[in-house]
Each structure stands twice: as C-alpha cells, then as structure tokens.
Amino acid sequence: MDMQRTSLKVIDPAGNTTASAHATPAARPPVEPGTLRHAELVSGEFWRHIPAYKDVSEAQFLDHNWQAKNSVTRVDKLLAAIAGLVDDGFIKDAEEGFRRAPMSVRISPYMLALIDWRDPHKDPIRTQFLPLGSRLFADHPKLDLDSLHEQADAPVPGLTHRYPDKALFLPLDTCPVYCRFCTRSYAVGVDTEEVEKVSLKANEERWKLAYEYIRSRAELEDIVISGGDAYQLRASQLEEIGMTLLDMPNVRRMRFATKGPAVMPQKILTDEAWTDALTRVVERGRKLHKEVVLHTHFNHPNEITSITQAAMNKLFERGVFVRNQSVLQRGVNDSPETMTLLVKRLGHVNVHPYYVYVHDLVKGVEDLRTSVDTAIHIEKHVRGSTAGFNTPVFVVDAPGGGGKRDAHSYEHYDRETGISVYQAPSVKPGQFFMYFDPLHQLSTSAQRRWADPSEQAVMVAAALGRAKERAR
Ligand code: SF4
Q1: Which end of the chain is least crowded, N or C, by CB within 10 Å?
Q2: Full-prediction pTM beyond 0.85?
Q3: Model confidence pLDDT, tens digit, residues 202-237
Q4: Residue to mutate (ligand 1; options 111, 129, 175, 267; most atoms within 8 A of CB)
C-alpha cells in the first residue's frame, strides 16, 4: 500500500463532489511539551495554604488514618479549617447549604486542599462536596429518591439483580467522602433533616443471604461490590468477600467499586493491609482465570495529582486494573475542554475511562444536572481526542430500572420538553424508560408547562406515543 499518497475527494459546502486529487498528507505539526496539560499534575506540599494544614508534614498528609480522622463533616469544622480564606457571604451560604442538604457531608483534607478558595462558588470540587444554599433549585416533579429502583430490583437487602448476568452487592453504607450527587442517597450516609436512610450496614448475616442468592443463580457471572464504598471495608472483610465470590464456580468477574483513589489516594500508599488484601484477591482471581478489577470515580482533572499518580503506579505494578466512571455535572465537567482533559489525564495515570453518566435524578442537586443534549455534544468532542479504548461511553442510567443506555440510543427525544425515552430489550423487554432534562435548562414556556400537573401528563403521553411509534 502506498503510504505517501492518498486519494482525496473534495466536497464543497453544498455537498457536491468537485474534484478528486492525489495529495501528500501533511505530518501533524509537533506539540510543545509545555502545552500537554493532561501530563501536568499538581505536586509539592499544596495543602499548606489551608490554615488548618499549614504545619502538616508530607508524612502526615500521606497517612490515610490522618486523612480519615481529619475529614470534615460539619459546617463549623469546615469554616474553622479555612478560616480567613472565605468571606462572610460564603460562610452564610455554606451554613444554609449544610442545613438543607439531603445528603450527609464528608470531605477529606486532601479534597479541601485542592479547592481554589479564591473562588469557591465556581470551584468544581467544592461544587461536588459542599452544598450552598444559593445553589439549591427545586427538584424535577418526576424525581423519586431511589430513581434507579435499586431496592425494587433487590431479591435480598443490598443485592440488586437487574441485568441478566450481573448483580450489584452493597456490603455497607458508608464512604470516605459523601458526594452531593450520590444516586444511593436513599441509603448512603447518616439520616439528614431531609431524608431518613435505608440501613445497609456492614453485617455478615446479611452478606450470607447475598452469597446464597449469587451461588444459587448460575447466570450470575459478574458481581459489583460497591456500597457505600469498598474503601471502607476492613482489609479482612474485603478479602473475605473477594475470596468467597471467587470460590463460586459461576462468578467469572468482579469489581470493587470505590471513590477512594479520587478522594483519598493516600490509602493505597499507606494502608498496606488493605492494598495487600486487594492484591491477593486480584492475584487469586488471575490464577483462577477470573477478572478482579477496581472501579473508581474521578469527575474533574483537578482531582488527579502526583499523589494519585503514585497510588495508581503502585496498583499498576501489582497488576490491579482500574476503570473510571464519571458523572456529568453542570459547572464541574460539562464542557468538551474539561471532559477531554479529564479523559486524557486518566489515561496518563493508567486509569481506563469507562463511562460518563448523565446525572441521575437525585434529590436536592438539580443545580448539578445537565441535559442529554449536553452529553451528546461533549461526547462528539471527546471521541477522537485519544485512543478508542480510552474513550468513555456516555450513558443514561434509565430511571425506573432500565439500566445503562447509550445516551444516543433514545427512541424519542424532545429537546423542548426535555423528555427522552429509552428501551432496554435485554433488561426489561417491552418497557419504556424516561429521562427528564433539568427544568432550569428548558425554555420559559416549557418550564411553565411543567408547573402544571395536567400539562405534565400531556407531555409525557406525547413523548411515550412518539417513542412507541418508532420502537422496534
Ligand atoms: S462515594 Fe459513591 S456511594 Fe459514596 S457518596 Fe459518593 S457517589 Fe455515593
């Protein structure tokens, strides 16, 4: 094959083929190394600009116990940690946000130190973890607390069996941090003024019921161990769960899901017992020809630092494969530039970008949601920026239990009313699932229609009718 000359067709803006020619393709111009932003990671003692951490040594900051012990859960502790960095307006806003938040608040010193406190209202890490009263919008009228119907699809408490060959096991309900946007806010964290949580505490009797169910279903080959967060499992618990599942002949794959690498990478570096337990499960899985991987959850490129890289290097050296699932959030990562930078930075530290979720319908975080249209727009820009295997799939986790659907694969999408309708023939044949774009991104006339319950029914019926006409 002639690699130097390529046959080209020239197509004018009207779509007419006007000429064909042979041309020598130009080599891509070289890129200045200094412009490769994805490879530039925050390093050094960046935490010392936070008043509360100004005397914290590197050894202390890398200690996972110190990170956990000093995580902030109350607004007074937050304000004490950042005293002098923010103005009174921010303080009042944060106090109101904590009071009205449906989700518990917990943020690690590592995350707090990565926030740009010169502009906390806009900072993408602050936006994800610290609620502000001024940013709380009314929930969408179609919102339901367990929008993914995980409890309805649970044959035993804390085990969701929705997909034919996969189950989601929730061994506990605590996390190293609490994210405002958590899909599982119906169970994760402690009760708040707004929400009384379903209890899924670590309990070996409950785990035995889950094991019995998994063992009894030959079709279950793939188990996700989430929570809560697998980071919160003691090393012995993580190993017991991993080895018990590996012993089941039907189980072929498992993933430990944890936000830990994104919010407290220190644990991988300094909690030797936990990292060794994970490594042993992965190594035994490999000997049995079963896949055991870690799934994590980075949302913004600022969350990836030289500490993250050291932690990911340690896992990579031990043969622990890490995949990432992001949530698309307004003001955090809802631009092609930010998402592309995130995807490339993840690849740079050997984390495989797997999914980007259109934000679920979650109580109290309407300010964070974006539309299906935004996801499709961003995906178009991300695709092609790096290798295909490192390009995430943009999905809608269909409310009502339809599971993950490629964002493009709707049967019908009305950008005016913000209703998209999906089918999931391999998950729940014959059913239709609707996703609703956030109201504040719709036109004023559409918002007016959503304020009227009889109009809501008309819009939903119209969207369903169109989807049914098109469905195959
Ligand atoms: S770490 Fe995961 S489970 Fe825990 S609060 Fe965040 S999103 Fe929810």
Answers
A1: N
A2: yes
A3: 889 999 999 999 999 999 999 999 978 999 999 999
A4: 175
